[in-house]
User: Fold these one by one.
Assistant:
Number 1:
Amino acid sequence: MGNTDTREELLHIALEIFATKGYHATKISDIVKQAGVAQGTFYWHFKSKEEIAKEIIDKGKENLLAAIHQGYRQTFALTDDMIQSTTALMKRIFTFAQENRNLMTFLLVKGQGADPEIREAIEEALISVEQAFKKNIQRATELGMLNSSHNTDLQATMLTSLVMGTLSKWLFGPKHDLNYVPKFSVDEMTEELVHFEFFGLIGQRRN
């Protein structure tokens, strides 16, 4: 196994153990044992458990933001197209979360009780998600698709809370059960989420 492959394998295994046992309960010896490498090999690639955890968070953040940035608009669109494109965006986010369940477990559940440095890295990742949503909202406002009198900071905060809160409950249930099986498909969740985002509780519009 080459150096790059070994590094990626250590990242993959570390994330799996962090998501299962939590950051505090995970030891470097756990990671190297499962990876089948010597402890010195770990330290060749990473200085500490904190460093590998931060790289996992950074890589996960980059991949999640890449999905959100695809929703950045270049041209004006009418409401129907906005709904369609927003649904596609939410499907990308929910599919990413489903395919990267260990990452979402670490970010939303197991990483919350970690050391301050790790919690701060997770918080920064979630703030970056909010900023990406804000950028999308600002662009839609510039194009005249959204009301310019609304506060984009508040809109981004509410949208992020809606998306990430819904995503967390969908993946882990109300009790943050890591073995929870979602009751609804990605398509069902995103369709309902986007309808609520655009039309709220009254929900007058349905096609």
Number 2:
Amino acid sequence: MIYRCRDRFAAALTAPGALFELEEQCGFERFRDHPRTLEGFYRQAIARGDMRLIQIDERAYSNNEVFARAACIAAHLRGRGVQPGNAIGLALTAGIEWAASFIAVTSIGAVAVLVNTRGTADEMVHAVQSMQCRAVIADSERAETLLAEPDFDASLLIAEAHLSALMLGRETPLDFAPRNPTDPAIVLFTSGTTGRPKPVQIDHAGLTHTIVLAGLVAAMQDQHYEADFGIAVPPERASAQAATLITSPVFHFSGVMPFLRGLYFGAPLFILGRWSVESVLDLMEREPVSRLGFVPAMLSDMLASPRVSDKNLGSLLLLSNGASSLDTALADRLRARFGTVMIANTYGQTESAAWGTSICGQDYIDHPTSAGYILPTLTMRIVRPDGSDVTEGEPGEIWLRSPCLMREYVGHPEATAETLQDGWLRTGDVGRTDADGRVYIVDRLRNMIISGGENVYCAEVERVLADHPAVAEVIAYGLADPRLGERVAVTVVLKPGEHADAEALTVHARQRLAGYKIPRIINIRLAPLPRTSTFKIDRGRFMAERIPE
């Protein structure tokens, strides 16, 4: 069975003459009158001139200022010989330098490679090398880390030094390199079964479709808000145009998407110099932010603050969760504190440009374990291992088809062929549906933990701990956590005659893993881990026999 969008408000929003009118193109539903390359997005933003685009703490930057910076960076990259199609690494945290660099790189036809700035030096160098980056633009902290690595050999631009110098006394036009919709635009990274991040390439057509779809989803959520609460959403607070706080790292779609959506639809963007509950509350006392993306840990910390009141969070209309499951107790606390804030949940992955399903409002309250319904322009199947469709309620692997799927895992043709089959994305996630078409995520074929909004792959954690000289066997898994969604746990079997306690293993992991990947719980086990007939660790049996922590 093929599932399509059933949202009651989607038809009117995508009808002929509507802002999000759809048309059939090459076997897909696409948005009729919207650009299919980033140049069209950027020209629309340039036309807004002195309107505020980005606010960082007390400093506001207009469209003109951001694009002037981008033009200088673009001219410098061209002067260094960067050509369309070259890969340029961005190892920067959210800020004006990242925004200008992203625009510059994609304007000249190069590919923006979004490096995990929370990763280890090895992870960052691997990202740069796997994409054969012609140059890397990094902030000073990441630059110092990269330069200390003997294997790092790309040209480096340090944001605080080089980019500031480029702006001195220069007025440079932003010249766009012609791009086709199928040309690559960005690369983000995700981990596979080996635990090594794989480069996920998204083309211009896929990226622009993703951003317009974000605007449509926001408009649908506004309609649900009005229906649920009987309160009209003022035009200036409509989700697509409303001020947005970027709370996610900009090497994730959850950070890139609000940036590009704000740039295209004209919504001001707020970026905090450093995340903290106090800084968020300070900002929201000054600015009427109506839409906030979050991970459960962030929301839990905010609700725990004695400062929380209508003065700072009273402007909120929508809280959107797409990183990990929302604890029902946390949802109850939120509804009790702010009765007219609507909660939304989405499901997707990097390979699908973050889109898959969504649910919000009263429907989400009534079905809190659901990931929602398939979104407009996407189709879904749920299949058995033999490729046949499951029946209602039967679990199977979720397959997605849409105009914004990845083009490939760069440099991994076998993994690409395994994941993309006849135009369908095999997500590796197990799901089921109910009679109304809601999707429920049952399990993950890829054994991924989502902790505090960050993806942690068991294979990577296991690989690192297995390198410890005292470790014979290790298995990593996620445990439910009301604040983080899940916490990373491992069970370790030591080699005969060897000794290592949890503290020693934590020190070992800390030297090799990003902070959010370090196991919070380490159990030492005496008996060998259960094995299958092919001598692989039997994860299912282990989890069934495990004594709950």
